[in-house]
Batch of 3 targets.
Target 1
Amino acid sequence: MKIGIIGSGNIGGNLGKHWAKAGHEVLFSSRHPEELNDLVRDAGGDAKAVSVAEAWEANADAYLLATPFWAVDKTAELYAGEYKNKVIIDATNPYPDRDGEMAQEVRDGNLNSSEYVATRFNTARTAKAFNTIHAEHLKERAFRESDKLAIPFAAQDETSKQTTEQLIRDIGFDPVYVGDLAATKDMEVDHKVYGKSVTADEMRDLLGVR
C-alpha cells in the first residue's frame, strides 16, 4: 500500500518506519519536509518526505492522522478536497494541557474523540487505532513472533476495517476490533485500555469483546 503519514512525530514516525520495513510505500509529511531526512533514512525501503499537501495529493491507499489534536480542525478544513473516500486511521488523542480548550470541549461533549474526528473528515472512511499504545512499546515491540501486543481498533465501514486490520498485522501486532467509532469510549484517554500493553486475549477481556 501507499501510506501517507500526517504528523511524523513519535507515533507517526515509528509507524511509518515499521510500514516501510513491511514493504509499504510510506510518505512522511511535515510543513517542513526537509527536516524529515533522518527519519526517511532510518525507515529505508520505499519511504520519502513530502509536504502535507503533497501527501494528500498523492492519492494514498491509507492515511495515518497523528497530529496534535488541536490541528484536527485546520487539517480537515485545509485539505477537504483531497480525502474523499480515503481511509484515515485516526491515532490522535485530545489532551487539554497541550491542545487547549477545544480538547476539553471534545472530552466533555456527547461525541467521543474518534467520532469528532470523523465529523471533521466527513467524506473520508475513518478508523481509530494506535492511540492507546505507549510510543516506546510501539517502537520496540513490533514484528514479534510471539507474545504480540494487541492494538484495539474501530472502523466506520468495511473498507476502513479491513485496511486497518491488515496494517496492524503487517507490523507484528494483534488487531482487536471493538466495533464502530461509537464503541471507542474505552480507548479514550484515561479510560479502560488507554496505555495498556497486553495480549489480544487480555485486551478482549478488558473490552468485553470476542
Note: The mean pLDDT is 96.
Target 2
Amino acid sequence: MTSAAHTDDADWGAYYRRTAGRRPRPLLLDAMAHVPAEDLWSVSAVDLDSGLTAAVEDLEAVEPPRADLLLACMSLPFLGPTELATLWERILAALHPGGVLAVNLLGDRDSWAHGDTAVAGMTFHRRNEVEAMVSGLGILQLEEHEFDGPSGRDPKHWHRYDVIACR
C-alpha cells in the first residue's frame, strides 16, 4: 500500500525551473483590466520556495499588505480548510475599498480531491462554497473550468474556479 501524496511532497523549485519564462497567467491579465492603471506598481510576492524574488514564508502565516489588487494563482488550494479560512479573512481585510481580488480555487471534481490521486492537505470547493466565500464582494468573473491536462506532477483532471471580485 502506498501512502497518499501530500502537499509537503511538492518540489516547487523544480516546478519553477520548468515554468521559467512562462507568460503571465490569464487570471492576472483579466484582473488588471479592473484595476485603475497607474504609472508605478508596488508588488509584494510570497512563496515557500526561495527561487523567486519574494518574501519566503508559509502561505498560511502571510499577513497580506493593504492592496488594490490581491492575486493568488493556484496557491490557496494548497492549504488545508482551516488554514485557508483563516488566510481568507486576512485577504479580505487587506483589500482596499474598490480593490480587486483574483484567485484560483480547486473544485471537488478535481482528481487531486479523491481516490488514488488524492493529495492530502489541500482544500477543494463546490460552487456554492466559492459563491459563499465571495459573498459581500462584487463578482466580476466566476468561471468554472473542467479539463484534462498536465500538472506539476502528472497529467490530471482539473476542476478549477477562476474568481475576480471587487470590494
Note: The chain has a mean pLDDT of 86.
Target 3
Amino acid sequence: MSFSPATFLEDLLRVVRQPLLDIGVVLYGMASVVWFKVIATENLSTSYPLVVAMTFLLVSSGCALWFREVISLQKIVGMVLILLGIIVVSSS
C-alpha cells in the first residue's frame, strides 16, 4: 500500500476488498464481544493475565506451525512456566 496522495484511496479500496480482511474484522469483533462479557462477569485480576498468557502461547504456537519458526528450548521452558502460571492463577 502506497501512502502517496495520488494512489492512496485506490490502494485503500484494494485492501478493503480483501476477503481475509473482512474475516479478520469479523473475528476481531467477535473476540471483543467475548472479552467484554468476560470482564463483565469475571475478576479482571484473574482474566487479564490469563488472556495475555494464552495470547503469547497461541501466537508462539501459530508461528511455529504456520511460519515454520524455530522455538528454542528457552522459549519452550518459558511457555511451560506460563502454562503453570495459568494453572495457578485460574485455580485461585
Note: The chain has a mean pLDDT of 89.
